[in-house]
Write a structure and sequence with these properties.
heterodimer, A: about 0% strand, globular, B: D-Maltodextrin-Binding Protein, domain 2, D-Maltodextrin-Binding Protein, domain 2
């Protein structure tokens, strides 16, 4: 922006071409006009900036500032007493991060989060794909009904979901335990058992999120040309072969998007354990986000919680990059 | 799942902004005299906060120049709101503050000291008063108190062949067993096994075993032999299947008390009212008793105090309002409105308290000997370690000795 000086105004030159090409919203055709080297903040760009202002303001205030602030905070000992006296905060270098390595609770929470992701993501994506394939063919008139049925949990408040699931899972008068006692069996205390609490949450999360996966897969399935399927069928492919050799490879881009988004969501898992178990029993459902919330907002160890957030961020970044690489679209 | 980090980020941003702002606006400012026309802002908490507005209006009739504006804040969010308000320099003039939160706000240097000539220590239950004292200075005037005592089902006890309240730990254990074996209840009692607030049920065991939270030098005393003994006693109920080993986060024991599944538990005086509202059929079928004794029968004192914030410009008016709320007459009146127990001992002789349900007698008795939870800046964290220590015994199956040692180690850095 500083390169535009009054003396050079109106004189087309190379630098300006390069510059305006990089700027937002300028089209190559207008480069030769007299308004050539206008600044990105000039009148012509005004409407563009105007339209992006609401986003920019919100993004800067609620995303960019906190992102930078938490990063800086993760190298400090920011705690309760700094709330009233922020200037006494001290930089402690990497101490928060080194402390995390020895933090038994944090390691447990990392393990639990991995468990949740490794079992939960394939389950959700698989169930979503299965539902989408079924809905794409067959079911006929009931299609809309099923779509709504699978998608409803996605838009339902977690608190409502939790209340319903608690009722389903309750060991004393829950749905499952009543059904079990009808046939003479006894059902375990799902959320109260160390071994079963996490699987219960995973099943609930899969049920709750498969709707999103399903909708995306449905869109992807509709993008697969009918001719390809027809050709496969003419060549004698059965249902399974068609699915395995045609549907899945052609769904790869959708698959990539769905698994990346689901994984990110699942790595951040917070609400389910927060509402259903408080991380118990015996920390069996304590996840990184929940641990972070306790450290940050219950005990006001803001520095320490920020360090946790950045560890989680790094994990998410690494996992996402890995997925992008593994699920690259090989048809192109 | 996605929105949470954003909320967290937003909160962090707000805190950061608040911090910037607070740097500009500090200092007490000028004091307004109690005679001037003014508005006094007060934060009340939970149910009490809602009732407090009524008292504010009544106060206004007597002091027409002081308008009291009460903002009720939920117990679940009040801690965060207060800390944010400290950061932003936007505290009200006065607040009702839960006894265990005092330590933290004394540490934050947010509270004004109490004028001990106007408010006399001896008028209040000693444990309640001491909960707001640090280094000889008092920071809160006790407003109402609560303590923990034992609730048990008399009808089921009769069925189980027990006709008097349990007086010792052994009696309590026998009663739990009798409930389960003879009265065929699902559990014998309810000891909270884990999660937030477990300490509230365990600390009575600790105090009754003769233990302390802090020793005389101010260090945690959670690995003392008494503490181990309290954990052992507490754990015995889980080991013998007399109490459930896990309960959902918002478990309501009153429901199971009503159905008879959990015929005994330890809790505070507000339960008397809850039972009346939610389980009216229990009338005459249950009783309260002082805590069964280990070495002694000792509970802890909770409740709330009235605090004035340092930055307030209406300290004189705040003092008037505090004086009004803690007068003997108003303390009894408060019991009638909110069913909270008066912190002032004299108020217990008022007719309203004399006619109180007999279930409250146990609490009055318990209050005389109840001990203070010391005001700790990091009580929230300290108590969370106790919660986890108890969970280690109840859910992880660790030995009480090991769990006690763990609690000691985990809390060492949190005091002093």
């Amino acid at each position: 922006m500083a390169t535009t000086t009054p003396s050079r105004r109106g004189v087309p030159d190379r630098t300006s071409k390069v510059r305006s090409g990089a700027g937002a919203g300028s089209s190559p055709g207008r480069k030769r006009g007299p308004k050539l080297r206008r600044d990105r903040l000039s009148v012509q760009n005004g409407p563009g900036w105007l339209f992006s202002t609401p986003f920019l303001v919100l993004f800067l205030t609620f995303m960019a500032v906190p992102i930078v602030a938490t990063f800086v905070m993760s190298f400090t000992d920011f705690g309760l007493r700094n709330v009233a006296d922020p200037f006494s905060t001290e930089f402690i270098g990497l101490e928060n991060y080194t402390k995390l390595v020895d933090d038994e609770r944090f390691l447990t929470s990392l393990f639990n989060t991995s468990y949740f992701v490794i079992v939960g993501v394939p389950l959700t994506v698989g169930a979503g794909l299965f539902a989408a394939v079924l809905l794409n063919r067959g079911v006929g008139r009931l299609r809309t009904f099923f779509r709504v049925g699978f998608y409803a949990p996605v838009v339902t408040s977690i608190v409502a979901v939790a209340v319903v699931w608690r009722f389903v899972l309750d060991p004393a008068d829950g749905l499952i335990s009543n059904l079990a006692s009808e046939v003479g069996l006894s059902s375990p205390d799902f959320l109260g058992s160390k071994a079963l609490a996490m699987p219960s949450l995973i099943v609930m999360a899969a049920w709750r999120n498969l709707g999103t996966a399903m909708v995306l897969f449905l869109a992807g399935l509709q993008g697969i040309p009918a001719e390809v399927r027809e050709a496969a069928r003419l060549d004698g492919a059965g249902v399974w072969q068609e699915f395995r050799r045609i549907t899945v490879p052609l769904l790869r881009p959708t698959m990539l998007y769905v698994s990346v988004m689901t994984t990110i969501g699942f790595l951040n898992v917070f609400e389910e354990p927060f509402v259903m178990t408080e991380g118990g029993p015996d920390n069996a459902t304590l996840t990184v986000s929940l641990d972070m919330y306790h450290e940050g907002f219950r005990f006001f160890h803001m520095g320490y919680a920020s360090a946790m957030a950045y560890v989680l961020f790094t994990v998410i970044l690494a996992v996402t990059l890995l997925q992008l690489r593994l699920l690259k679209d090989k048809t192109k | 799942m996605q929105p949470i980090p954003r909320i967290a980020a937003a909160t962090a941003a707000t805190t950061a902004l608040a911090l910037l702002l607070s740097a500009c606006g500090s200092g007490g400012g000028e004091q307004t005299s109690a005679k001037d026309k003014q508005t006094l802002t007060v934060w009340g908490m939970g149910e009490e906060g809602k009732h407090l507005a009524k008292l504010g209006k009544e106060f206004n009739k007597k002091h027409p120049n002081i308008t009291v504006k009460v903002t009720p804040v939920g117990w679940d969010v009040v801690h965060q709101k207060l800390v944010s308000a400290v950061a932003a320099g936007e505290l009200p003039d006065m607040a009702q503050m839960g006894s265990t939160m005092l330590g933290e706000f004394i540490e934050l240097d947010a509270l004004d000291t109490v004028d001990q000539k106007t408010f006399k220590k001896d008028d209040y239950f000693p444990a309640a008063w001491n909960g707001g004292v640090k280094d000889g200075e008092a920071y809160g005037v006790p407003w109402y108190v609560d303590t923990r005592a034992l609730y048990y089902r008399t009808d089921l006890a009769e069925k189980a062949g027990v006709d008097k309240p349990p007086a010792t730990w052994k009696d309590q254990m026998d009663l739990a067993e009798a409930y389960k074996d003879k009265a065929k209840t699902k559990w014998g009692t309810y000891n909270q096994p884990a999660n937030i607030g477990t300490w509230q049920t365990w600390v009575p065991f600790l105090f009754s075993a003769g233990g302390e939270l802090l020793d005389s030098s101010g260090k945690p005393a959670l690995d003392s032999p008494e503490s181990v003994k309290a954990l052992e006693e507490y754990a015995a109920y889980f080991d013998q299947g007399l109490s459930r080993k896990s309960s959902p986060p918002d478990y309501d024991v009153v429901k199971d008390f009503g159905s008879g599944d959990a015929p005994m538990f330890i809790s505070g005086p507000w339960i008397v009212n809850n039972i009346k509202d939610q389980q009216p059929q229990l009338k005459g079928k249950y009783a309260t008793a002082p805590l069964p004794a280990g070495e002694s029968s000792t509970s802890w004192v909770g409740g709330a105090s009235l605090v004035t914030f340092k930055d307030s410009e209406h300290k004189a008016a705040a003092k008037e309002f505090t004086k009004y709320l803690t007068s003997t007459e108003q303390q009894a009146h408060w019991y009638e409105i909110a069913k909270s127990l008066p912190a002032k001992e004299a108020a217990w002789d008022e007719p309203a308290l004399k006619n109180a349900p007999e279930q409250l007698d146990a609490f009055e008795k318990q209050l005389k000997t109840a001990k203070t939870v010391p005001p700790l800046a990091k009580w929230e964290e300290f108590s969370a370690k106790i919660d986890e220590g108890v969970a280690r015994v109840s859910q992880k199956g660790e030995s009480p000795k090991k769990a006690a040692a763990w609690m000691q180690k985990a809390t060492e850095g949190l005091v002093g």
